Automatic annotation (TrEMBL), chains A, B:
The lineage of its organism: Eukaryota, Metazoa, Ecdysozoa, Nematoda, Chromadorea. One of its GO terms (biological process) is proteolysis. Residues 171-327 form the Peptidase M20 dimerisation domain. Keywords: Hydrolase, Metal-binding, Protease. GO terms for molecular function: metal ion binding; peptidase activity. This is Peptidase dimerization domain protein. Belongs to the peptidase M20A family. It comes from Necator americanus (Human hookworm). SUPFAM superfamilies: Zn-dependent exopeptidases. It comes from the Eukaryota.
Length: 428, 428
């Protein structure tokens, strides 16, 4: 919390040097397991208040996914390191790099004494990787205040489909997260002394987790695919024309084989079908080497990406009902407790809006994304205006993974793209 | 390595104050994943060299299982903390506490100017929790040197069956450890961007791990129970007479129900039947909270406790063959690599030996143990003499777990027991 405040103060200082009027908005507290946790603030900024100009709201986030050198990073994840024209570091691409691109774009226009033809509002948060807790409510409270008069929203927090051709993102998957807790013994036990005469919570948990997906990574929860929006003929055709090489994709992830190697089916599965990923287990031995322990309380983590027209409430119910059925089937005397984590709605935009048309440069591919940016839909609903997802990073930036990077060329061209977008918006 | 050297130098200093002649024995190096790791030394000590006296060899270990306050300890695991007549700290019971009891016993006899009627040799190591790597070979090399003339071996590295009645341990299970590595993508991936279009290694691994045991914690690997020694009528009767309360045991582990609640079946499963425990997964997300990642390389850890007449080579082959069959059945394009960890043979002693008869105090229960002390069998084979397992700690000491402790009363009575044992040995 102290760290994130320091980070926000640095961003505020840089914004204020550009003449941006900034305030830190208190998000209050969040209750986890009965404990109150203070939430980091949100930074609101405003540059220009010319009634004759349109206003664009720029969103970004300065929080990042966890990272440690020992996860397999080649460099310290929290020291930006340049190597082979790439900028390595946690957040370089998701999403501190793109946030900085916005600051550079404004700075460059001011240095060149070019009139910025739009008013700019900034909304930078630090809870995006945790489902943007509290932000929707804060924005709701500011609907007639900070959000009033916003004509366009722009978010740079997604990725190109490949590594060379710029893209515009017009769809995002949502997410429902889950935690499966299994307990049954009061503390970790010596497996030599107690092995064979207790029901091991971890044996129950891996069995539960193994029942969620098929070997081809399709979800085994009944009804989960029922609400997926049917595809129109036009959408089918859009997929046919997208520039995407399955072989290059397969090689970039380093897989021998993919669950599907058909371009269209693969893109459909990534963008407009739900999927289930297992993330890990808390409470079991996770170090290197051996530890002959029977863990007493283990928590399996997984999430389901959801698409239109799936609703988190319905997905949560389907999943929890399925888990409870599974647990009955398992017949273990241990205690099972399924918990809901954060969720976010999917989002799809109208690509014919002026906001989309204002993007300068090569004709982009209109793509969707498999991931979630929880606040996209909130901005669209509260402003009633179009939200543009303008990705600056390349497909191989490895957000959330080891050795996250942003290419120097994407960073520099990204600044130019944002700058051109601002100038184009002035012509709308 | 530096830490363990410092610990050994402290023990050497204390032993030398008692007149024990000490040397540190180099164990050389151990190769793990192609890398050479230096092994910690072994401490050999000798007190007395009177040819007219018998010689007892005392074994202990000063290494411990991993521990961190964040695992759920109420106190710093590496600061011995007294609370409610209990001494809390990692190693308090397994096995630094018992090692110190030996030092106190000798010190007390010397202070009281009581002649110690036996020569004592000490063998303290620091690799017990990792399968005593290198120790068997070191002892083999010292068969006609340090081990020559040893008449009795005594090890205090096990536990009473309950919390009130002292026990003598005359059997130990062995162990075979395994690691299941599944890889398939070159690094961790963002589950939003890649979810649904890769075969997730963690999905494969939890499925593999879920196929090893039944819900009642019986091993599903064909042939694994085939070599378990049949029980004689006498052994059946021995189990009938043992003082053991299933209800108290169940409550001490905090379980609602056990896989068996029949006293005899439960003890048989703990002491003379194999069992399989899952310990955890390396490489997946193991922290608190959420991380929407697809882990790229995950390693499942499990071990099987083995009993007479099972042989590690045969168990290893049964398990690896089973795992390879399972993997074929899974049909995943990912890469699976089963690896063998440390193993140790089971051990059973003849309780009619003078070494067992020399134990003073209340008539003890003759028990076996579910856990392994790898070096027990080596001592028996190399000296050709009886090995006494003289447990000092209580059943609820929670070795390998959070909040490991030794009761102050066990610590004090333990010193007296060892002291009486030394005096009794002089009468043999």
């Amino acid at each position: 919390m102290a760290t994130i405040l320091v980070i926000f103060l640095r961003y505020r200082e840089r914004l204020e040097k550009l003449g941006v009027c900034c305030t830190l908005q208190d998000l209050g507290k969040h209750i986890v397991d009965g404990k109150e946790l203070p939430l980091p603030p949100v930074l609101f900024g405003q540059l220009g208040d010319d009634k004759s100009k349109k206003t664009v709201l720029v969103y970004g986030h300065v929080d990042v996914q966890p990272a440690a050198k020992s996860d397999g990073w080649n460099t310290d994840p929290f020291t930006l390191t340049e190597k082979n024209e790439k900028l390595y570091g946690r957040g370089s691409s998701d999403d501190k790099g793109p946030v900085l691109c916005w600051l550079h774009a404004v700075e460059m226009l001011q240095k060149q004494k070019i009139n910025i033809p739009v008013n700019i509002k900034f909304c930078f948060e630090a809870m995006e990787e945790s489902g943007s807790i509290g932000l929707a409510e804060l924005l709701e409270r500011n609907k007639n205040d900070f959000l009033a008069g916003v004509d366009f929203v722009c978010i740079s927090d997604s990725y190109w489909l490949g590594t060379t051709k710029p893209c515009l993102t017009h769809g995002l998957r949502g997410i429902c997260s889950f935690q499966l807790e299994v307990t049954g013994i009061q503390q970790d036990l010596h497996s030599g002394v107690y092995g064979g005469v207790v029901h091991e919570p971890l044996q129950d948990l891996v069995w539960m987790m193994s029942q969620l997906t098929s070997v081809e990574n399709r979800i085994l929860i009944p009804g989960i695919y029922d609400d997926v929006a049917p595809m129109s003929k036009e959408e089918h055709e859009l997929y046919d024309s997208i520039d995407f090489c399955v072989k290059e994709f397969r090689e970039s992830v380093g897989a021998k084989k993919l669950p599907t190697e058909d371009k269209k089916t693969l893109l459909i599965r990534r963008w407009r079908e739900p999927c289930l990923s297992l993330h890990g287990i808390e409470g079991a031995f996770s170090g290197a080497g051996e530890k002959t322990v029977i863990p007493s309380k283990v928590i399996g983590k997984f999430s389901i990406r959801i698409v239109p027209n799936m609703k988190p409430e319905k997905v949560n119910k389907l999943v929890v009902d399925f888990l409870n059925d599974l647990w009955r089937k398992r017949g273990s005397p241990n205690t099972f407790n399924p918990r809901l984590g954060h969720d976010a709605l999917p989002w799809v935009a109208d690509t014919n809006d002026a906001n989309f048309k204002a993007v300068h440069g090569v004709d982009p591919d209109y793509i969707r994304e498999g991931c979630s940016i929880p606040i996209t839909l909130t901005f669209q609903e509260l402003t009633g205006k179009s939200v543009l997802l303008l990705p600056l990073g390349a497909a191989d930036d490895m957000a959330h993974s080891q050795n996250e990077k942003m290419n120097k060329i994407n960073y520099i061209q990204g600044v130019k793209t944002l700058l051109a977008y601002l100038l184009e918006l002035g012509k709308v």
